[in-house]
Amino acid sequence: MSMTYSWKVTSITKKDQTNSDGETLKDAIVQTMWEKTGTDADGNVGIFAGATPFTAENTPSGSFVSFEKLTEADVLKWIQNVVTGEYETRVNSEIQKHIDRNINETRLDGDSLPWAS
């Protein structure tokens, strides 16, 4: 079954970090929280929430993108460069498991519970 994926950054952590040249890079991204969502051909949705740390220690100041100029696409590219191979296969598998659980389970709330009047 085909799956369509989308990504979003849910939060980031930043701090000033000194690179290997001894230069301080202001507000470098050091942690990201993200979600990858998969939607199958029937419209069933599964979500994987992940966290990916980063460091700017080996980033030359000329290659550093200031916090104010970052876009979600920039940060997602960094994350997606880490979430590859077996790691991505595991993430996609967890998304499929989430979809399978949702298809095979029925959630009952409030008036649907057997003791509700």
Describe this structure in words.
The chain has 117 residues and is of the alpha+beta class. Helices cover 26% and strands 36% of the residues. It has two helices and three strands; from the N terminus they run E-E-E-H-H. The longest helix is centred in the C-terminal third of the chain and has 20 residues, at 85-104. The model has no long low-confidence stretch (mean pLDDT 94).
Over the alpha carbons, how many angstroms does the gyration radius reach? 20 Å
> How much helicity do the residues have?
25-40%
Helix-strand category: alpha+beta
Strand-residue fraction? 35-45%
Widest sheet, order of strands: 1-2-3
Q: What is the approximate shape?
A: elongated
Tell me how many strands there are. 3
- What is the tally of helical segments? 2
Low-confidence spans: none
How far apart are the termini? 42 Å
Biggest pleated-sheet summary? 3 strands, antiparallel
Instruction: Write down the secondary-structure element order.
Output: EEEHH
What's the pLDDT, averaged over the residues?
A: 94
What attributes characterize this protein structure?
3 strands, single chain, three-stranded antiparallel sheet, 117 residues, alpha+beta
List the helices and strands and how they pair.
Blueprint lengths: L2 E16 L5 E17 L4 E9 L18 H11 L2 H20 L13
Would you kindly provide a brief summary of this structure?
The protein is α+β, with helices and mostly antiparallel strands. It has 2 helices and 3 strands, in the order E-E-E-H-H. A 3-stranded antiparallel beta sheet has the order 1-2-3.
